[in-house]
């Protein structure tokens, strides 16, 4: 990592890091106590400060969302779509700024940040188009009786989004809520606040009515408990860890509110008998280091048939050692830092535990340098099933490899955890692919590649990995309610 790369990042910090504020009832609020400081993961330098919403701010946001919903709900769908399309067009014009901001806050490669921002626009396009197809229907009835089934927006939504995909997750939730006719209070991650501000700014510039979209930061526990308990909020949607998701679900259940939860995973990768272990191993290095492994669908547990295990691990480790780690703005870097000192410590802890239990470090395993949160792409081999690396989602550039002798054993290991979000399999057997598709407990399965769903297909998990789906034909379901109207056509 060169001095020039650091200087390039510093120049971007000074020139382009947006000011962070709360956005309530159509106005930006900046003059508040600081909640946290935002740091650049590559340099540990402070980027800016995040204002903390007061109890009065949250009350104002709730009141604004209640009024905004009434106005937005009664706005014709075609007009709502025009506003969403205008905001999306503005974000597309600002993709470079959005991507730069993501890399500054999150640390991921600029190319990956740009790809995330560009792909996120698909959610606005898809959800807006789906809103024009959310028809009700009429049920045949007896004479002088009309039975209407209406599809209506559920109401104001509390949306909580994470730091690892700051534009993607916010785009999924905001686009669905606004397309359905709901208002939103977005509580974005304090680690990546400016990215959320840029999304909100685009909607302000597009003419979204005041109160329809609000943005708050501050004390996460205070914000979540206040918003979820309020009778204004009708739906809670969250992307993040299993533990926090369960806590928010409990709060919502106490208030009898539905939830849409996209929670953590620990994605298994089944590498089956008969595949090219070397080729799959090299693919795995790219899949594992994408966004420094800090995505919920990141491949993490590599369950490999014994006939290809040695070739796979050797190729995987070799390719991992070749990955160039550096500042996300470096033109030569292939992986950026992890996002925080906490993530760096977590990686070190997983390696230490695995080594203590007898695992072999085939590649990486250590911090790089002493400035910035850089960690080597790490491949652990011969990992015991009960090691932390096999049971705790790493959320970093760390892979655990285990050897199995047959497909049934591989599926059993993959299904042994309480989570089930994404999963991957590599096989040349249609019979095995069919069995894996049927028996693997996951919400998303990719066979012979490491891709994940776009806006046109559902994304979500099973078991502890969540409730509901985002994307695809059912994308607006959670944000709408069904109303039955039975109308007698007689004079009274």
From TrEMBL:
Q: Which family does it belong to?
A: Belongs to the aldehyde dehydrogenase family.
Q: What keywords is this UniProt entry annotated with?
A: Oxidoreductase
Q: What class of enzyme is it?
A: oxidoreductase
Annotated organism of origin: Paraburkholderia rhynchosiae
Q: What is its EC number?
A: 1.2.1.26
Q: Where is the Aldehyde dehydrogenase domain?
A: 28-485
- Keyword hit for Disulfide bond: no
- Which GO terms label this protein's molecular function in UniProt? 2,5-dioxovalerate dehydrogenase (NADP+) activity
Record-linked PANTHER family: SUCCINATE-SEMIALDEHYDE DEHYDROGENASE, MITOCHONDRIAL (PTHR43353:SF5)
Return the protein name.
Alpha-ketoglutaric semialdehyde dehydrogenase 1
Which Pfam families does its entry note?
A: Aldedh (PF00171)
């Amino acid at each position: 990592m060169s001095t020039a790369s650091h200087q390039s990042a510093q120049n971007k910090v000074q020139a382009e890091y947006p000011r962070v504020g709360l956005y309530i009832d159509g106005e930006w609020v900046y003059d508040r106590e600081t909640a946290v400081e935002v740091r650049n993961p590559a340099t540990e330098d402070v980027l800016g400060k995040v204002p903390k919403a007061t109890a009065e701010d949250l009350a104002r946001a709730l009141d604004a969302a209640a009024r905004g919903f009434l106005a937005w709900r009664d706005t014709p769908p075609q007009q709502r779509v025009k506003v969403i399309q205008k905001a999306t067009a503005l974000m597309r014009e600002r993709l470079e700024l959005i991507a730069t901001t993501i890399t500054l806050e999150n640390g991921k490669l600029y190319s990956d940040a740009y790809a995330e921002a560009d792909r996120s626009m698909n959610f606005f396009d898809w959800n807006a188009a789906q809103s024009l197809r959310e028809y009700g229907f009429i049920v045949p009835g007896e004479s002088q009786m009309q039975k209407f089934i209406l599809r209506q927006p559920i109401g104001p939504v509390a949306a909580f989004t994470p730091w690892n995909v700051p534009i993607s997750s916010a785009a999924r939730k905001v686009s669905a809520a606004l397309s359905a006719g709901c208002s939103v209070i977005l509580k974005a991650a304090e680690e990546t606040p400016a990215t959320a501000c840029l999304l909100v700014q685009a909607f302000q510039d597009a003419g979204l009515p005041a109160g329809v979209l609000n943005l708050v930061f501050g004390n996460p526990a205070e914000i979540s408990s206040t918003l979820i308990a309020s009778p204004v909020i009708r739906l809670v949607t969250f992307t993040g860890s299993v533990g926090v998701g369960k806590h928010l679900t409990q709060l919502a259940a106490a208030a009898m509110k539905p939830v849409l939860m996209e929670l953590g995973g620990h994605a298994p990768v089944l590498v089956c008998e008969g595949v090219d272990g070397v080729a799959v191993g090299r693919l795995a290095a790219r899949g594992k280091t994408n966004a420094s492994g800090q995505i919920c669908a990141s491949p993490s547990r590599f369950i490999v048939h014994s006939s290809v295990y040695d070739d796979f691990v050797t190729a995987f480790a070799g390719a991992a050692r070749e990955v160039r780690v550096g500042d996300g703005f470096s033109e030569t870097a292939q992986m950026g830092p992890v996002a925080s000192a906490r993530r760096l410590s977590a990686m070190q802890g997983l390696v230490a535990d695995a080594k203590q239990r007898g695992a072999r470090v085939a590649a990486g395993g250590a911090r790089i340098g002493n400035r910035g949160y850089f960690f080597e792409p790490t491949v652990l081999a011969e990992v015991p099933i009960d090691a932390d690396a096999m049971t705790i989602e790493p959320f970093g550039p760390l892979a655990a490899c285990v050897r199995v002798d047959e497909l049934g054993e591989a599926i059993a290991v993959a299904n042994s955890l309480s989570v089930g979000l994404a999963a991957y399999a590599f096989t040349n057997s249609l019979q095995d692919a069919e069995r894996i598709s049927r028996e693997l407990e996951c919400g998303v399965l990719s066979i012979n590649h490491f891709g994940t769903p776009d806006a046109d297909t559902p994304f979500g998990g099973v078991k502890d990995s969540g409730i509901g789906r985002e994307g695809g034909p059912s994308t607006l379901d959670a944000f709408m309610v069904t109303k039955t109207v039975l109308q007698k056509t007689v004079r009274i």
